[in-house]
Amino acid sequence: MKFWDRFGLRRHRGAAIQRFDREATDSDLKALVAFAKERRGVEFYVEPETFATGATAVAVAHDGEWIRRRVGAPAVIAKVARDLKLPVYDVQITGYPRRMREWNERNKHQRGTL
Fold first, then answer.
1. Under a CB-based contact definition with an 8 Å cutoff, are residues 70 and 22 in contact?
2. For the chain, what is the HEC assignment?
């Protein structure tokens, strides 16, 4: 029995799992693909599903510029990465690349708070 099952949450929520966030759309994947095609050295980092959101992916370019979009499931971004011949990593295993943090530091004042 899982932790939340003790409280009967699965019984009371019905068939659908309620999320605070919206589902992934084609425009999310198109944004990731466009980002990857317009920049060099792009790598994808898959973020796990949480209670509030479905699985997401972060595309990080060679200079650290990045975008995050919903992908619905890790298999989706794995297929996109395979089609684009780009690497894909599990962020829980590898963490985020240093260049992404450095890019955030350099651009903190331009973008406001990240």
1. yes
2. CCCHHHHCHHHHHCCCCCCCCCCCCHHHHHHHHHHHHHCCCCEEEEECCCCCCCEEEEEECCCCCEEEEEEECHHHHHHHHHHHCCCEEEHHHHCCCHHHHHHHHHCHHHHCCC
| Cα dist from 7 to 12, 26, 51, 52, 102, whole Å | 10, 36, 16, 19, 43
Q: How far is it, in rounded angstroms, from Cα 85 to Cα 9?
A: 42
Residue range 62-91: average pLDDT?
Answer: 94
Partners of 67 in the β-ladder:
59
Q: By CB neighbour count within 10 A (0-12 exposed, 13-18 middle, 19+ buried), where does 63 fall?
A: middle
Q: What angle do CA 58, 74, 21 make, to 5 degrees?
A: 70
Q: Is the pLDDT of residue 34 over 60?
A: yes
pTM: predicted TM-score of the whole model, two decimal places: 0.77
**Per-residue pLDDT at 20:** 58
